Amino acid sequence: MADVTIAAADGGSFSAYLAKPASGTGPGILVAQEIFGVNHVMRELCDGLAAQGYVALCPDLFWRQEPGIQITDRTEAEWARAFQLFQGFDVDLGVDDLIAAYDYLRGVDGCSGKVACVGYCLGGKLAFLMATRSGVDAAVSYYGVGLDELVDEAGQIANPLLMHMAELDGFVPPEAQVKIKAALAGHPKITLHSYAGVDHAFARIGGEHYNPAAAELANQRSAAFLAENLK
Known about the structure:
There is one protein chain. By secondary structure, this protein is an alpha/beta fold. It has a single domain (2-230), classed as Rossmann fold (3-Layer(aba) Sandwich), CATH 3.40.50.1820. The protein has 6 helices and 8 strands; from the N terminus they run E-E-E-H-E-H-H-E-H-E-E-H-E-H. It has an 8-stranded mixed beta sheet, sandwiched between helices. Helix 3 (91-106) packs across helix 4 (122-133). It is globular. It starts with a strand and ends with a helix. The model has no long low-confidence stretch (mean pLDDT 97).
C-alpha cells in the first residue's frame, strides 16, 4: 500500500493510493473518489479490493484545486469544503485524469491489464463517464449524481456497467431517477438496481445514511460482477 505519482495528460502530476493483493498480481480496479478526497474511506475500500485479489488505485481528482484533500463527513465545515470542491470540479478534466490513471494502472507491475472503474457519489458519475469515454473493461456506479444530464452518452457504452441507485437519494430527485431509468432501460450492457427506502451513500460505512443490508446486497452484486468481467 503506497502513494504513487501519475502524470496528467495536459501537464502536471497528481497522487494516487495504490493497494496490491498479497499475491502481488490481479486485475485492476480504478476507484473514483467521493467528494471528500482520497480519505480513509477510499483507502480502506482499496485495501478491501486488494484483499479480494485486485490491484486497486484511487487517484486524487481534486488536485487541480488543492492536492491531498482528505476530509470526512463528520462536521459542517468539512461538508462545506467538500461541496466547495465539488462545485469547483471540472468533470471533463476529471475524466481525463481518470483515463491517465487507468493507463497508469494497466502498466503497474502485477496488474493483469484488465481494469474496471468503481465510483461512489461524484465518483459514481465519473464511473458512468468512464464507461462512455474510455476503454475500461467494466464499470460500477454507486449512487452517481447528475446522471440525468449524461444519459445521452449511454449509446457509447460498449462494456458492462453496473449501477446502484438509492430510491430516496437526496441528491438525485425522483424525476431525475425516472429519466435515468427510462433512458437506460433495455441497454444490453447496463444493469441497474434500485434500493428501496435508502438514501445517498447508503454503502458508506459509518455514514449518516449507511444501510448495512442494502450495502451488503450492492457489494455482493458488485463483487460477482467484477469477478465475472475481470477474472
